[in-house]
Amino acid sequence: MNIIDFRFRPSTPDAVKGMLSNKVFGGMFELFKYADRAKPEPIEKIVADMEKQGVVKGVVTGRDAETTYGLGSANPGILELMRQYPDKFIGFAGLDPHKGMDATAELTNMVNKGMRGAAIDPYLARIPASHAKYYPIYAKCCELDVPIVITTGPATLVDGAVMDDAHPRHIDRIAADFPKLKIVISHGCYPWVSEVIMTVHRNRNVYIDLAEYEEQPFSEGYIKAANTLIGDKVLFASAAPFMDFQEQIELYKRLPFTPETLENIMYNNAARLLNL
Fold first, then answer.
1. pTM for the whole structure
2. For 217-253, what is each residue's pLDDT tens digit?
3. E strand intervals along the chain
4. Which of 57, 138, 183, 186 fits a 20 to 30 Å CA distance from 168?
């Protein structure tokens, strides 16, 4: 089975070291014992393991939260990864909405250099996904015809982050205001399982990944919805390196997806979204 991993950051030694030293996520990493689970490996080994598992593409989402948390853009590192392995990795440019038109200029520049989409983190920006500061970014995505990944989830133990900023109601509003914008909800808008399922179901332009929340309380709703309502909208995303991508692939094979739904999740839906 061919696989597209829609949230993949290679667990190179530099990447793991940088994540462990990141003060913003320090509480989260300590809570989930990330230091004990991290498996730093050379990029050559990671790519070889991707080949063994049938992972034909890894989408690497950038992050820029410089204004609120001092986390500068990861886009240069993603460009270098794409340069090293142009057939393996697809970059999505991380954008800081507080940078105004500089953010849209950054998106245009990154797409011109080969990136295939945008990525934002409302809880790190400390404004909801439907805030007006994001709208120039959404409009530019439509103009460039590229999708946007909106990182959601609880932002566990991230100081100053408000979980409601990533509530699915904000994404429902965006989908209505920008019907041609291809939106990927990352981390499933957990814990609002029912709300996000209907947001995906009722909007043609909204997709979802369940990264890290496939086995959390109430997650059976995701599985049932994938088999009945939104099977053509769910994307596999391992959340590597926070999660081991090989273990996540095995998890998806064990979860009670129908065979057709599993094939769609692991490859077909993402291939269609990315025009592969």
1. 0.95
2. 999 999 999 999 999 999 999 998 888 999 999 999 9
3. 3-5, 55-61, 89-94, 117-120, 148-151, 183-186, 206-209, 234-235
4. 57
Phi, psi of 133 (to 5 degrees): -65, -25
User: Got the DSSP string for 17-57?
Assistant: HHHHT-STTHHHHHHTTHHHH-----HHHHHHHHHHHTEEE
Cα separation, 8 vs 85, whole angstroms = 14
Distance CA 90, CA 16 (A): 20
Q: What is the tens place of the pLDDT at every residue in 65-117?
A: 999 999 999 999 999 999 999 999 999 999 999 999 999 999 999 999 999 99
Peptide bond into 191 cis (omega under 30): yes
pLDDT tens per residue, range 9-28:
988 887 777 777 677 776 77
**Distance in angstroms (rounded) separating the CA atoms of residues 206 and 186:** 11
Contacts of 171 (CB under 8 A, 6+ apart): 129, 130, 150, 152, 183, 185, 189, 196, 199, 206
Measured from the Cβ of residue 270, the count of other Cβ atoms closer than 10 Å reads 26
Classify each residue of 102-118 as buried b or exposed e, where b means 16 or more C-beta atoms within 10 Å of its C-beta. Answer: ebbebbeebbeeebbbb
